[in-house]
Amino acid sequence: xxxxxxxxxxxxxxxxxxxxxxxxxxxxxxxxxxxxxxxxxxxxxxxxxxxxxxxxxxxxxxxxxxxxxxxxxxxxxxxxxxxxxxxxxxxxxxxxxxxxxxxxxxxxxxxxxxxxxxxxxxxxxxxxxxxxxxxxxxxxxxxxxxxxxxxxxxxxxxxxxxxxxxxxxxxxxxxxxxxxxxxxxxxxxxxxxxxxxxxxxxxxxxxxxxxxxxxxxxxxxxxxxxxxxxxxxxxxxxxxxxxxxxxxxxxxxxxxxxxxxxxxxxxxxxxxxxxxxxxxxxxxxxxxxxxxxxxxxxxxxxxxxxxxxxxxxxxxxxxxxxxxxxxxxxxxxxxxxxxxxxxxxxxxxxxxxxxxxxxxxxxxxxxxxxxxxxxxxxxxxxxxxxxxxxxxxxxxxxxxxxxxxxxxxxxxxxxxxxxxxxxxxxxxxxxxxxxxxxxxxxxxxxxxxxxxxxxxxxxxxxxxxxxxxxxxxxxxxxxxxxxxxxxxxxxxxxx
Length: 495
Ligand code: NAP
What we know:
This protein folds into two domains: 7-268 and 472-489, Aldehyde Dehydrogenase, Chain A, domain 1; 272-460, Aldehyde Dehydrogenase, Chain A, domain 2 (3-Layer(aba) Sandwich), CATH 3.40.309.10. 39% of the residues lie in helices and 21% in strands. The chain has helices at 11-19, 58-77, 80-96, 98-109, 113-133, 172-184, 198-209, 225-234, 247-259, 282-294, 314-325, 346-361, 412-420, 435-444, 477-482, and strands spanning 24-26, 29-31, 38-42, 49-54, 140-143, 149-157, 161-164, 188-191, 217-219, 240-244, 263-267, 272-276, 304-310, 365-368, 372-373, 379-380, 383-386, 403-409, 427-431, 449-452, 471-472, 485-493. Helix 2 (58-77) packs across helix 8, helix 3 (80-96) runs antiparallel to helix 6 (172-184) and helix 10 (282-294) crosses helix 11 (314-325). Bound molecules: NADP nicotinamide-adenine-dinucleotide phosphate.
């Protein structure tokens, strides 16, 4: 960690934090929580409380859903062009305010400023993409096979939605849900993670400025997510739940959603394999590895979790990535050039360390790092371990930290077996210069997404999502808006 990380806020940071709303947003108004409680949001780089905001009670969640239900019909009846233009204005405003959004994310979540700016760009693209998709909601019209009538297929908004987002991408996970919901004509209640609620509150202020009508987006921030969410999910007026977060919470929410037979979208955990074949361009593979592993300090569902490298090049690959990792600047995300910021909290540091120690205990070799960093903030050394043995916890669990773990393989079948040996199936990365092998891997790897000779795949124009226990549904692309539409078929007899 760089030397001076003491809690000294710049005037700009203080002014920005001051300008972030600290109340709930319900029916177009900023309101206090009925609980009288507060959430103290901390900077993970220092542990300092940076803002105190409203902590919603069950009643506030109910009021937010009431507001979404009340606004549903008029929003669905709002011209698609108008809905799209509000999203487009939001996109433009986000570009104007990008530096504020980036700084705010760095302060509440810890990621380096350059990465936070990258998230603003990525998160903003969902606003632009779905502003364009709002006017492309189409149907079908044609004769039935018997020739006795006309079949009309239209798409209607699903109805009021509940959107639950995680802490690791505070802006992009919100826009990835809010934008398609609004484009489709759905109203929403949004619940960000209690660890990083400020970005969502700041974003909703931006939506107000973009001209969003009251009640279309409502935000509740709460420290009691289960208690506040349960009655919303149980309410028969809710029609859809979209969740991004861990697989165990997602599974519980799917069970709860069964009662009302809710439409659900689930973006859950990952355990991405990063497979490097002996014929790979090693320079590209190392560049890809660095971004796939250390983006967001390893705290991404798409983070490469298991580096599965052909035995003939495993040592060379390990040497090269270690060289790169050894010179990573570590520190507060607001400091120039920092690559490794803090993890979200001390629990995350302890979890990363447990996985590393378990792997080392089972025979892996430590090449660099391997320890928490003492002092203020929740920092863990960027770490490389090689020769990870089967049965190690690190091969089964999401690391969610800056730890690169290498396992050797012998041949293509062995690589596929190891890569698919997980209940997760979000994304995989494959490095090979053999085109035919690349194509085979697209078919053989059980993941919803794949990067072929590239370490990052996310794009607002592409369908993001997983198979197996990584989730249900897709966000982004042509598919993203479908998650918020129901198909309606009407038969009109000819006589
Ligand atoms: P988490 O603990 O599952 O929390 C996710 C969200 O759910 C938070 O807003 C959380 O609120 C809320 N929540 C927790 N328990 C709840 C309950 N009983 N009822 C309603 N809401 C509840 O996950 P996380 O630690 O924030 O995020 C990390 C996980 O997200 C990782 O597993 C990562 O892989 C996954 N993720 C997946 C994707 C994807 O697209 N597939 C993208 C990003 C992250 P509180 O925290 O305030 O309780």
